[in-house]
Amino acid sequence: MATTSPLDEHAQKGEYVIRKSGRPFTKDFRIHFERAHDGVPVSPFHDIPLYHDREKGILNMVIEIPRWSNAKFEISREKSLNPIVQDTLDHAPRFVKNFFPYRGYIWNYGALPQTWEDPDHKDPETGAPGDNDPLDACEIGRAVAPGPGTVRRVRPLGVLGLLDAGETDWKVLVVDVDDPVLGARLRDLPDVERLLPGLLDATRDWFRFYMVPDGRPPNEFAFGGQWKGRRFAEKIIADCEDAWKRLVKGKTKREDISLDNTTLDGTPGKLDPDEVRLPPDEDLPPAPIEQDLDEWFYIDRKTAEDGEGSLSGNNMTIVLEMQE
Question: Taking Cα atoms as reference points, which of 76, 231, 74, 267 lies closest to residue 155?
Answer without folding.
Answer: 231
